[in-house]
Design brief:
two-stranded antiparallel ribbon, mainly alpha, antiporter activity, 332 residues, 13 helices, UDP-glucose transmembrane transporter activity
Length: 332
Amino acid sequence: MELHDAGLRRVFVLAFCVAGIWSAYIYQGVLQETLSTKRFGPDGKRFEHLAFLNLAQNVVCLVWSYIMIKLWSSSSSGGAPWWTYWSAGITNTIGPAMGIEALKYISYPAQQVLAKSSKMIPVMLMGTLVYGIRYTLPEYICTFLVAGGVSTFALMKTSSKTISKLAHPNAPLGYGLCFLNLAFDGFTNATQDSITARYPKTSAWDIMLGMNLWGTIYNMIYMFGWPHGSGFEAVQFCRQHPEAAWDIFLYCLCGAVGQNFIFLTISRFGSLANTTITTTRKFVSIVVSSLLSGNPLSGKQWGCVLMVFSGLSYQIYLKWRKLQRLQKKRKA
């Protein structure tokens, strides 16, 4: 009976994590798309300073992680020093800024397919070319499905209705920014892995605090470091259009809440469960964007999306099988 109750509690917590991650990030995606395409106020102005979203997100997540460390962290010794995140902070500032900036030039579904779903491609390329890592045939199949789906999606024509909503339609520039986002994101992940390897006692909240601290510093310098910095214009825009300011606040809050659920998922169920939840969330985000935000995809584009997520799903299955084998060896 006790085992049955424990199992039910575990299922309930997992369902709670899924609902939290999906709700926070799907709604954040809707807000991100709104801020990049909507015209605010009677003058019909667009919010052009999308990089300001990164600064606002950094500040909110910095405060959030500090509060969580004070409330839940049992020990502050043995973790990575705050200064070790300076280099990862640079790429983590530039990469997301490029991803958000790409929304001026390409649609949200296109950005999701490219920037959010194809991280495995540069990882495998770097592993093969730089470190000489050999991958299995199933892993190459996953990469082929993702790369093929992404490439075909990028080459297809976007609907005129979607293009009319973009601030400055420019597909080559938008896709280029997405791929640069991937490259910087790959360096960020590698640096974070290196930090946790050198300082094993570093908690997820420590990483969140360190990354957002440096992100706040860099973005503050970039946006407010000179008299005519774009940050001043962004603040002025928010004063004139409170609706935009409210959307930005909700966007940042969704990011902080989403990260909270991600850390809860990893701590209770492992990174594989988190990967599965976040991958399916990306697909649902594309569906929600297409249905609610008026970004229609053609049948061929939906085929590319399915191709990409088939590759990602197969990758998750391979990770699950590998985890099962490792667990059997430990039991033996």
